[in-house]
Amino acid sequence: MKKSLTKFFSLIALAGVVFFSSCGSSDDAVAPSAPTISIADAGNGSYETGDSVTYNLTAKASGGVKILNFTKTVDGTESAATGFSNVTPGDTNTINATFKVPVTEAAGKTVTITVNITDNSDQSASATATYTVVATGLGGGGAAPLVKGSATLTMGTQGNPTDPSYLSTATQTDGTIGKTFKSSEAVANQGVIDIFFGATNVNGTAAAQFGTTALTSMVSPSEVTGANLWGTPLTSGRATKFAASSLTDVNVTAIDVENNISSTTGNSVIAIEKGKVYSFVTAGGKKGYILVEDIINNGVNGSNEANRQIKVKFAVQQ
Questions:
Q1: How far apart are alpha carbons 103 and 288 in whole angstroms?
Q2: What is the rounded average pLDDT of the residues 287-297?
Q3: CB 212 within 8 A of CB 193
Q4: Is 245 within 8 Å of 277 (Cβ atoms)?
Q5: What is the mean pLDDT of residues 195-210?
Q6: Does the domain made of 36-134 have the CATH classification 3.30.200.20?
Q7: Which residue has better confidence, 44 or 159?
Q8: How far apart are CA 318 and CA 199, in angstroms?
Q9: Average pLDDT over every residue of 271-291
Q10: Whole-prediction pTM value?
Q11: What percent of the chain lies above the pLDDT cut of 70?
């Protein structure tokens, strides 16, 4: 009898445990998935003071949106949060939106944008993106590849193995803009050479030398091939296109370079003049402007002229 009563009360106790456990399970809400958020710069990350940065935002909060905002951090100081007026609190759908951040900082600053989302369960997530403020003429709102800067070079005479008459407009490994090559170095470096400076006849063909009737010209390396009068022939010179421009200097913005230079038209040979600006497009699709600052000994020594030099300054896409 005693054993039976003990078993009976044990069953009652077990039933109570099951009952209270079941009640507790039915009252517990399942926590929603944590929110997610991402941000991407629609441009190239380099902007000038006065530009606006456009960001693409994607967010998801299955527990409902409680807070969605962004902050800006400069030199370790974070701004007050700015909310998004087009986002409805409680929204559980995926949010795809764009927003703009004005660039008010000085050149040289790096700015971090942080977007934050919190759901109704106080679960949160954040994402960051950065942009760099660059000097005027080097940004362009991120809509075009960055124009790195300009350089001044002095070119040598045609075919002279000791004077540079070939130009690479690319940014070099040491960070300098542009590099000149002698005729004796041309073949070994033809993979990076963009412009040859040489003498042409009126019809654009190669002239024997810089004489009083020869034109000082920029020539596509693709034309300096085979046996001709343009010094050391290249075996696989790259194609560059040139065109005249109405500009008077190369203090241009990235938007000017991208939007105002055609990548489909141009000439492989163009006669140049002191003080004039010309556009060019390299074989790699990089656009730029080049200013002829000076042409030294331009047609003063007759057919045996050996000291004509061209001083140029250029700005080119990175």
A1: 26
A2: 89
A3: no
A4: yes
A5: 77
A6: no
A7: 44
A8: 29
A9: 95
A10: 0.61
A11: 74
Enumerate the domain spans of the chain. Answer: 36-134, 147-317
Mean predicted confidence (pLDDT) in 300-316: 70
Report the SS3 class of residue 307.
Answer: coil
Mean pLDDT of 169-193: 87
Kindly give, in sequence order, each residue whose CB lies less than 8 Å from that of residue 8, ignoring residues fewer than 6 positions away: none
Question: CA 48, CA 253: separation in Å to the nearest integer?
Answer: 10
What residues contact 35, with CB distance under 8 A and at least 6 apart? 59, 60, 61, 62, 63, 65, 117, 118, 119, 123, 124, 125
Q: Which residues pair with 110 in a beta bridge?
A: 132
Mean pLDDT of 238-242: 97
User: Would you say 151 and 131 are in contact if contact means Cβ atoms under 8 Å apart?
Assistant: no
Q: Output the pLDDT for position 155.
A: 61
What count of other Cβ atoms lies within 10 Å of the Cβ of residue 305? 19
Q: How far apart are CA 18 and CA 25, in angstroms?
A: 10
Q: In the sheet where 164-171 sits, what is the strand order?
A: 177-182, 164-171, 195-200, 215-219, 269-271
Which three-class secondary structure string do you get for 208-243? Answer: CCCCCCCEEEEECHHHCECCCCCCCCECCCCCCEEE
For 217, residues 6+ apart whose C-beta sits below 8 A from its C-beta are 197, 198, 199, 200, 204, 269, 270, 271, 272
Q: How far apart are CA 303 and CA 211, in angstroms?
A: 4
Q: Which residue has the tokens 């055609």?
A: 262
Q: Are strands 287-296 and 77-78 parallel, antiparallel or unpaired?
A: unpaired
Tell me the average pLDDT of the chain.
Answer: 81
More confident site: 124 or 152 = 124
CA 316 to chain centre: 12
The encoded tokens of residue 45 equal 């990350």
Cβ 135 vs Cβ 142: under 8 Å: no
pLDDT of residue 177: 82
CA dist 122 to 57, 84, 114, 194, 278, Å? 20, 18, 18, 58, 60
